[in-house]
Input
Amino acid sequence: MHPSNHLADWNGLAELRPDLVRLLSTRCRNPHDVDDAVQESFVRTARFRSGGRAPRALRPWLMRIGLNVLSERRRRASNHAPEEFDDLEHEPSCTAPDPAVVVDEPEVWVCGRPIGLGRARALVAGALARLPEHDRVALVGIFLSERSRCDVARTLGVSDALLKVRLFRAKQRLRRVLGRTLEAAA
Output
């Protein structure tokens, strides 16, 4: 195949780069990971286009490929995360940890700022406690207890379709309560 035919597979991708970077940056804080995901997305898109499987609308197709690449990278990174092993912790002479040593707590990003994981959990637990009971049962049953949707719907005495609506609204209410809590804490 002539090299100019391969270049045709890349047509239109450069113009979509800023949109893809913006989308992936909302999902990932590390700019290096975003750049890697953008490059991999372009390669996959060009490869699929060369197979004659190009869609009518290039932009949404590229955005979906980018999101898939980013989620695959995260999944791979979490599966291959190096295990930290502290030799001192497993020595028989080691008794209690030194209280003067500060242990770094993992952080999560909430509203553009880092919050300790323990504090974030406490904020979510407090926000859940302020929700109506049917919201708590639905959210905890599905997302924390990992029960089936049918089981949670049966517990609440509603249909599966109504549970979907209640989950949507419960997540909105939880988001609002958490937002107010975070504003008050700031």
About this structure: The first strand starts at residue 107 and ends at 110. Strands lie at 107-110, 113-116. Helices lie at 3-8, 13-27, 31-50, 58-79, 117-129, 133-144, 149-156, 160-185. Residues 3-79 form a domain with the Rna Polymerase Sigma Factor; Chain: A fold (CATH 1.10.1740).
